[in-house]
Design goal:
Layout: H1 8-20, H2 26-34, H3 37-40, E1 55-56, E2 62-63, H4 66-76, E3 83-87, H5 93-101, E4 104-109, H6 112-124, E5 130-134, E6 147-152, H7 161-165, E7 167-178, E8 183-190, E9 196-204
Bound molecules: S-adenosylmethionine.
Length: 217
């Protein structure tokens, strides 16, 4: 986008605060300084787009807090050649962040109206390497598997087995796991032999992953 949006100062203030807190490294923070979060939220939330807060979007869902986006993206260790799967497109903001770092992003959203809105915003901003699909992402997206990295931005009761199956050896899966209200952010790593290890990055709160391998509606 060439025109001045008027939020540049607020955006760099937010990114500076995230840098001081060590929320992520330079590459991820550079992306957060570029992707215009204000474009992904509704008019009524635009003045809050660069506060470090989760904000409401359509369909009773949320756009994640920037510090959490920074932490999850850093934990995913995306490289330029990576083929990435995201579950829970929501506004499409995290999709854009991933598209800045990866070769290709497939993002799955269960709510068609959110998927359509995210597609329009991503196209408007010129992201040609991200596509949004409608479906139950708790089952992954087998048509484009396997993936180098998988990010889930909704809370799952356990690590969905289909997602593990769609992860390449050496790949990473980052997701909130736990109860419907409170979860731990888990990084699952699959080594070249297929062995799986898990570590927690601490407590988070996400809306539920609704689906066959998630929570009932
Ligand atoms: N990453 C998003 C962003 O940057 O705006 C925020 C995602 S929001 C916290 C979680 C999203 O997951 C919601 O849009 C919700 O509809 C979606 N969701 C929940 N269960 C899902 C499922 N089984 N498959 C795909 N999307 C799902």
């Amino acid at each position: 986008m060439n025109e001045t949006r008027g939020w540049e100062t607020a955006q760099s203030r937010l990114v500076d605060a995230l840098r001081r807190r060590g929320a992520a490294g330079d590459a991820v923070l550079g992306v957060l300084a570029r992707v215009p979060r204000d474009v992904f939220v509704g008019e009524e939330q635009r003045h809050r787009a660069f506060e470090d807060e989760a904000l409401p979007i359509a369909g009773g869902q949320t756009i994640s807090q920037p510090a959490v986006v920074a932490m999850m993206t850093e934990a995913l260790a995306v490289r330029p050649e990576h083929h990435v799967l995201e579950i829970g497109t929501g506004s499409g903001y995290q999709t854009a962040v991933l598209a800045e770092l990866a070769s290709e992003v497939v993002s799955v959203e269960r709510k068609p109206e959110l998927a359509e809105h995210a597609r329009r915003v991503l196209a408007y901003l010129g992201y040609r390497n991200a596509r949004v699909e409608v479906g139950d992402g708790s089952l992954g997206w087998p048509d484009a598997a396997p993936y180098d990295s998988i990010l889930v931005t909704a809370a799952s009761p356990a690590v969905p087995v289909h997602l593990l199956e769609q992860l390449k050896p050496g790949g990473r899966l980052v997701l909130p796991v736990g109860g419907r209200d409170d979860q731990e952010l888990i990084v699952v790593t699959r080594d070249a032999q297929g062995n799986v290890t898990e570590r927690s990055l601490g407590p988070v709160r996400f809306v539920p992953l609704i689906g066959a391998q998630g929570w009932p509606e």
